[in-house]
Amino acid sequence: MNVTDLELPGVKIIEPRRFGDDRGWFSETYNQKALAAAGVDLEFVQDNHSYSRDAGTLRGLHYQAPPFAQDKLVRVVRGSVLDVAVDARKGSASYGRWVSATLSAENGKQILVPAGFLHGFLTLEPHTEVVYKVTSFYSAECDGSVLWNDADLAIDWGELDGEPVLSGKDKDAVTWAEFDSPFSV
């Protein structure tokens, strides 16, 4: 398993090895010992799975506030996404900065998004499925969203073919300026 740090503290790309033969391939996508040896020592409590019918579906920028803040280990099992993490920790030197990575079923890459970061993704293909592990259970009272296209964040989502497909929650999300972050370093 190869673990690479991205430009923001704690955000990592995790690349499990694939072992192929004439039938296809096998991959160990999660190994607690291997990740702990690479400095990722987390206890995951829930697995989530999302399906997006259309390319151009945007989910985010989401967070779970304390005491239900979540670290996420995200991977794509069908299709591909542009995955984005935004540092929302007050007092962080990288507060308000973002990183992105392309995750696909083909490349097998995963992204670790630490608690205290906003998370979102844009589907690049129809019928995309994303699965992710989280370190805390979902809480409706602690659930929140920041506007995906906020000018202050200036996230580069790539070339969009029209408006993305959004949920009502994401259409009504607060701006970065309105967001009172519950996170700090």
TrEMBL record:
InterPro entries: RmlC-like (IPR000888), RmlC-like_jellyroll (IPR014710), RmlC_Cupin_sf (IPR011051). The active site is at H62 (proton acceptor), Y132 (proton donor). SUPFAM superfamilies: RmlC-like cupins. Keywords: Isomerase. Pathway: Carbohydrate biosynthesis; dTDP-L-rhamnose biosynthesis. GO terms for molecular function: dTDP-4-dehydrorhamnose 3,5-epimerase activity. Its EC number is 5.1.3.13. It comes from the Bacteria. Gene3D superfamilies: Jelly Rolls (2.60.120.10). It catalyses: dTDP-4-dehydro-6-deoxy-alpha-D-glucose = dTDP-4-dehydro-beta-L-rhamnose. GO terms for cellular component: cytosol. Transmembrane segments: none annotated. The keyword Isomerase applies. One of its GO terms (biological process) is dTDP-rhamnose biosynthetic process. The record marks Y138 as: Participates in a stacking interaction with the thymidine ring of dTDP-4-oxo-6-deoxyglucose. Belongs to the dTDP-4-dehydrorhamnose 3,5-epimerase family. Homodimer. Catalyzes the epimerization of the C3' and C5'positions of dTDP-6-deoxy-D-xylo-4-hexulose, forming dTDP-6-deoxy-L-lyxo-4-hexulose. PANTHER family: DTDP-6-DEOXY-D-GLUCOSE-3,5 EPIMERASE, THYMIDINE DIPHOSPHO-4-KETO-RHAMNOSE 3,5-EPIMERASE. This is dTDP-4-dehydrorhamnose 3,5-epimerase. The gene is rfbC.
